[in-house]
Amino acid sequence: MSDHCPNIQSPLEAHDMVSQPYTKELKERLYEILNEDFMKKYTNFENFDHFQFSSAVFLNWNSPVIIYSEARLDGFVEESTTFKTWKEMLTKAVEVFEF
User: Could you tell me if residue 26 is inside a domain?
Assistant: First the structure.
């Protein structure tokens, strides 16, 4: 296993890992849709920076490729936002932004 992978706590978590290129375009889009108004309304955070800082325990947002446990990120989203999953949060952010 690569030195760059987060510590995996169980064999089940190994199947839960997601690897996502974190391009400049994706970063810009996330900041666009997860803007201050959205974050204040739907999360416990003032902005996306605060969300990232709080989730940094298990996710390095400064990497060109982010590798994370989907279950851990979903758990963080569920306990700190009005959403159950990261995907649900992003879907709502796109809907609100485009509306």
Answer: yes
